[in-house]
Design a protein that fits this description.
The strands form 2 sheets. A 6-stranded mixed beta sheet has the order 1-2-4-3-5-6, sandwiched between helices. The protein has a 6-stranded mixed beta sheet with strand order 9-8-7-12-10-11. It has 17 helices and 12 strands. The chain is elongated, with a radius of gyration of 32 Å. The chain has 564 residues and is of the alpha/beta class. The two termini are 58 Å apart. Helix 7 links the parallel strand 10 and strand 11. Helix 9 runs antiparallel to helix 11 and helix 9 packs parallel to helix 12.
């Protein structure tokens, strides 16, 4: 287990001390794990206090939602364990005045017992208390009665709505009624790609095969209601929303707020993709998405996966959601962009000059396809190499570049110069990072050097190759020995030029050039990198060939195989 903790037994207190250190609007009770709002007025002047909480491990819930307009206090138990009755009671007494307190509880036995008993004890002391139970997990619709479903991430939306209502100065009965209505209009469901690791346990709670996922998980590291093969983001999002529809809580014309929640180990990139899918699905079904957020709002430690929460809204509910709060974890905003794509700026098309294809252009077109297919086939090995000494994206980049070249039509290769230009522009548009500019620069330079030659001579081709390699070197600043693609390109270009000058045939000269380039690839194993991401590794890169040089070796070989 690799965790940034001090001691499993102090992890909750240490975490809460860090939370309040970063949030001037909150403070921590000295003798209980309760975070409360700073600057509360005297008890007799206080509005309705809104409390929630539960086991820790769900960060930023629940302490992150303490603030004006949201929670007045959050009570934290041990990881995935309900807080004690005494801790809850201490929280109620610390924040509630004569107006009373509303407690929002997720529907788990431990939480209901401890928060419920604390409420009774507070009432015995003269503090008015109402409890709202959230049971939003629609994955359990065919498993248990509705009132026994779990409470999961949609609880955060109830926090926001109830907290805003309390801040308006409404009485306890009205705030409780608004919170119960929100909970009744709430639906959530989660999908897990893997388990999580509890600090006190040190190993995952369950194990999934590489292609398996859990559907309908809880938030405490437990397994879901069923296991199935992984699908695309669109497929999994549709599965969740179809389940919500099947539960009878979503229909055309509904207005909703959407929470796309990460479970702890899901990166923002993937959550944004899920948000895209969810909004598109809902809009196609005629559902109006009034507000939407994507992020980690209620996690399950380091679990990979997501949940979707939908709450039906009207104008009054939407106004409460939009009320300001200084709770540190609430994302603000949430308005959905209705015009998400700007039309491309169209430029006037230049007239296309019809050219008869030259024999050299025809040969280049056929060779370009062999090169593209070779680079696509080499994706696994290039990805593995680049993962060792780079960021692991070279294989995918070469696949994009290769596919872009395959998409070029034969007319783009009317002659060699035109074909090289078309390839350069295709690579430039298809590949980001450094590979695209390098290949585009080399190809466009070679195209300029061969402009006007319908049937370039071997000497002209050799000169264009040398010029292209020099252009790449000038662009990136790499020289032979720096452990880059230049270490394969330079010896290949020089050998081809030298052999042509010595009277060798194109096939002989190119074969020698390929051998020289492959020796250059091999030599990079012992070179300390001086440029690129590999340079950050220093000696750790030794023993592995440079991935960019290896990619050059792939297409050098592909051309050799294509020369008659």
């Amino acid at each position: 287990m690799k965790k940034l903790i001090n001691d499993p037994s102090t992890v909750v207190r240490d975490m809460l001390e860090g939370v309040v250190a970063l949030s001037p609007s909150s403070t921590l009770l000295a003798d209980e794990n309760v975070v409360i709002r700073s600057g509360l007025p005297e008890a007799r002047e206080r509005k309705i206090a809104v409390l929630s909480g539960g086991g820790s491990g769900h960060e930023p819930a629940h302490a992150g939602y303490v603030g004006v307009g949201m929670l007045t206090a959050a009570v934290a138990g041990d990881v995935f364990t309900s807080p004690s009755t005494d801790a809850v009671l201490a929280g109620i007494k610390a924040v509630a005045g004569p107006a009373g307190a509303l407690i929002i509880v997720k529907n788990y036995t431990g939480d209901r017992l401890n928060f419920g008993l604390a409420a009774e004890l507070a009432r015995a002391d003269g503090i008015p208390v109402e409890i709202v139970v959230v049971a939003d997990d629609v994955a359990l619709k065919d498993t248990v009665p509705a009132d026994r479903r779990r409470g999961i991430a949609g609880t955060v939306l109830v926090h926001k709505i109830a907290g805003a209502a309390a801040e308006q100065g409404l009485d306890l009965a009205d705030v409780a009624s608004i919170a119960r209505a929100a909970a009744g209009n709430l639906s959530s469901m989660g999908v897990s790609l893997g388990s999580c690791t509890l600090p006190a346990v040190g190993k995952p709670g369950f194990v999934l095969a590489d292609t398996e996922i859990e559907i309908g998980l809880g938030i405490h590291g437990e397994q879901g209601v069923r296991r199935m093969p992984i699908g695309t983001a669109d497929e999994l999002t549709a599965l969740v929303l179809e389940t919500v529809k099947a539960d009878g809580r979503l229909k055309t014309g509904d207005r909703v707020a959407l929470l796309v929640n990460g479970l702890g180990a899901t990166p923002p990139m993937e959550l944004a993709i899920v948000a895209r899918s969810a909004i598109a699905f809902l809009e196609r079904d005629g559902v109006v998405v009034e507000r939407a957020w994507a992020g980690t709002f209620l996690s399950a430690l380091d679990m990979p996966g997501f949940s979707l929460s939908l709450v039906q809204v009207d104008d009054a509910t939407l106004a409460l959601i939009d009320e300001p709060t200084d709770a540190s974890a609430w994302p603000r905003g949430g308005k959905v962009n209705r015009q998400r794509v700007m039309p491309s700026v169209k430029t006037e098309k230049q007239a296309v000059v019809s050219l008869d294809r030259t024999a050299a252009g025809e040969r280049l077109w056929k060779t370009s396809r062999s090169v593209a297919e070779a680079l696509i086939a080499a994706e696994p090995s290039l990805t593995e190499l680049d993962s060792v000494t780079g960021d692991g994206d070279l294989g995918a980049s070469m696949v994009r570049g290769g596919q872009a070249v395959l998409n070029l039509d034969a007319q783009s290769f009317a002659n060699v110069s035109g074909g090289l230009q078309a390839m350069g522009n295709a690579m430039r548009k298809a590949i980001g990072g450094s590979s695209g500019p390098f290949y585009a620069t080399g190809l466009l330079c070679a195209s300029r050097n061969l402009a006007g030659f319908d049937e370039p001579t071997a000497r002209q081709m050799a000169d264009a190759f040398v010029a292209a390699v020099q252009a790449i070197s000038d662009l990136g600043g790499a020289k032979p020995g720096d452990r880059t693609m230049i270490d394969a390109l330079y010896p290949a270009a020089k050998t081809f030029s030298d052999r042509i000058a010595a009277g060798a045939s194109v096939a002989e000269a190119w074969s020698s050039a390929v051998d020289a380039g492959l020796r250059g690839v091999e030599a990079t194993k012992s070179m300390k990198p001086r440029l690129g991401r590999a340079s950050y590794l220093g000696d750790r890169a030794l023993g592995h060939p440079d991935a960019g040089a290896a990619a050059v070796g792939v297409w050098l070989e592909a051309i050799r195989a294509d020369i008659p």
